[in-house]
Structure formats: structure tokens, C-alpha cells
Design goal:
The complex is a heterodimer of chains A (120) and B (186). Chain A has 120 residues and is an all-alpha fold. Chain A has five helices and no strands. The N and C termini of chain B lie far apart (48 Å). The chains are: A mainly alpha (120), B mainly alpha (186).
Chain lengths: 120, 186
């Protein structure tokens, strides 16, 4: 840029800050003097990729959590059903719900264990 | 053909289409306002790669806040506000970062990367404007960038920056003084 053009541009810059000036007109002149600002090529595509690819990542994450919940509910229901069946069968076999029957220990166990541990 | 038809659609319609999942509608919003955002961001941060990132950030943030856009103000004003806020945050962040690692104060603002413009003349013009802007105090810089590069009046600038008109006027007057001495040196 030669000195003349540089001087003109400096004058335009100063003029743009004067209250009486028309900012639209001067910004247009500054733009025409070469001071135009653009983003690089492909800017729009980059932004769209960022938005829509991260959007699909969020959707995938949500789907994974939903699948995990579904599996958890199925496992929890199956587990609860198994516990109920176990308790019913225990009640039928032992006739009560005392701790030993729940733990699977018969009354004879105490003596056996005592004999085993003490040697008498 | 389709691209042409999007160009004829108004902003509000484009916003509605974007919210309904129309990717091309948002592409049109970006094409429509990217130069405006470039002037704000690059005018305040310099013509650097950081400015490109902030520019992208502006449109990403706009996308996620479109559902909050009530249409009370113009879409361009709404975008400008996002661009100015993100750029000012970046200036503050960089100021903090550089003040931790150097004693040069505001000098980080002078690092300007000039990308390949189509002619030497354009490159020189951008360099001159950037030098002038980067040497200004950031609170003056935003007002000067709004007026000089975007052509906003003081009233419009006050609205975008959420500042009282009196503050904009006094900053503009002080910016004018600062600019005079800057331009003498460059």
C-alpha cells in the first residue's frame, strides 16, 4: 500500500469516529479500501459439522443410557422373581422363615460345627 | 436451486426451520451473517486463527440458544451480542493467561497473523486497520469496531453492548483521542 492510500485510510478511520459522520457510509468506504474481513473457505461447513456431529453424539449417548435402563429393569425384575420363588420354596420345605432356614443352616449344623472346631 | 430459495426466506422463517431440524436453513443463517461476525471478531481479536475459532463458537452458541430467540430484536443484533460477549471473554481470558506468563501486560494483542488476502493492497489495508484497533484499549476497541467496521450508530452500539448511550459517547470521544496518537505512530 503506498503512502497516499495509507494516509487516506488513516483519515477514513479518524472520520469514522466523528459523531457527525455517517458510520454506514464510512464503514463501506473502509471496506472498499481493502479492509474487509472474512472467515476462511469452508467456515459454514465446519460450524455445521460441529453442531450436527456433536448432536448425533448426544443422541447416541442418550440411546445408550436408555438401553442400559431397559437392561437394568429386566435384570431387576428377574432377580425379584427369583427371590420370591426361593422364599416360597424355603417356606414349603422348612415351614418357617427363621434365620437358619433362610441361610440354609439346619439345627444339627450347630453341633456338627462345634464338634468339628473343639474336637469333642 | 434449493440454495437460491433459502436466500429469499426471511430470518424468522429460517430460525423456525432450523428449530424443526432443517440443517440447510441454519447453513443459510451462517452464510448470511458470517461476514458480519468476522468483522466483529477479527476487528477485536486481530486476524488470527483464534478469531476463526471464536467465529465458529458464535454460531454454535447461537444454534443452541435459538429456542430462546423471541424475535423481539433483529437476528443480526442477537448474533452481534453473542459475538461481542464471546470476543470480550476471549480478550479477558488471553489477558489473564498472558499476565500469568509475562510482564508485558497488553502486548498479546499485538500478535496478528495476516492470512493470505487476494492482493497485497488488501493485506496492507487489513494490517493497518488491525494495528490501529489492537493498540486501542479493549473497551474502546469494541466501540470503534462496531462503528468503523460494522457501520453501527452510537444508539445501535449502545443496544448491542447493553451500555447507556452516554457511556458509548464518552468512550467514542476518548477512543478518538487515543486513535489519533496511535495513527501518528503507525
Amino acid at each position: 500500500m503506498n503512502d497516499m492510500k495509507s494516509k487516506d485510510l488513516k483519515l477514513l478511520i479518524l472520520k469514522s469516529l466523528e459523531l457527525e459522520s455517517d458510520p454506514k457510509e464510512i464503514s463501506q468506504e473502509i471496506n472498499e479500501a481493502g479492509a474487509e474481513y472474512n472467515f476462511r473457505d469452508g467456515f459454514s461447513d465446519k460450524v455445521l459439522d460441529r453442531i450436527y456431529s456433536s448432536g448425533s453424539a448426544i443422541v447416541k449417548k442418550v440411546e445408550f443410557v436408555r438401553d442400559l435402563n431397559f437392561v437394568f429393569y429386566r435384570l431387576a425384575l428377574t432377580g425379584a422373581a427369583a427371590i420370591i420363588v426361593l422364599l416360597i420354596s424355603l417356606f414349603i420345605m422348612e415351614g418357617s422363615f427363621n434365620l437358619n432356614s433362610v441361610l440354609g443352616l439346619g439345627n444339627s449344623y450347630d453341633e456338627t460345627i462345634t464338634c468339628l472346631l473343639t474336637g469333642y | 436451486m434449493i440454495k437460491e430459495s433459502y436466500r429469499q426466506i426471511g430470518d424468522e422463517e429460517l430460525v423456525r426451520a432450523t428449530l424443526e431440524g432443517d440443517k440447510r436453513a441454519y447453513g443459510e443463517i451462517i452464510s448470511r451473517y458470517q461476514n458480519m461476525v468476522a468483522r466483529t471478531v477479527k476487528g477485536m481479536l486481530g486476524d488470527s486463527v483464534y478469531a476463526e475459532d471464536i467465529g465458529q463458537e458464535v454460531f454454535v452458541k447461537l444454534f443452541y440458544s435459538l429456542s430462546d430467540f423471541r424475535g423481539e430484536a433483529k437476528l443480526s443484533t442477537y448474533i452481534q451480542k453473542i459475538a461481542v460477549n464471546l470476543t470480550l471473554n476471549e480478550i479477558k481470558r488471553r489477558k489473564r493467561f498472558f499476565s500469568m506468563f509475562s510482564h508485558k501486560g497488553n502486548d498479546e494483542m499485538h500478535e496478528i497473523e495476516i492470512p493470505d488476502h487476494d492482493s497485497e493492497e488488501k493485506r496492507d489495508a487489513v494490517e493497518l486497520v488491525n494495528k490501529a484497533l489492537m493498540n486501542l484499549d479493549p473497551k474502546f476497541r469494541v466501540i470503534v469496531a462496531m462503528r468503523m467496521l460494522q457501520g453501527y450508530s452510537t444508539r445501535e452500539t449502545a443496544e448491542i453492548l447493553d451500555l447507556p448511550l452516554g457511556t458509548v459517547l464518552s468512550r467514542l470521544s476518548r477512543a478518538q483521542e487515543q486513535m489519533k496518537s496511535i495513527l501518528k505512530k503507525i
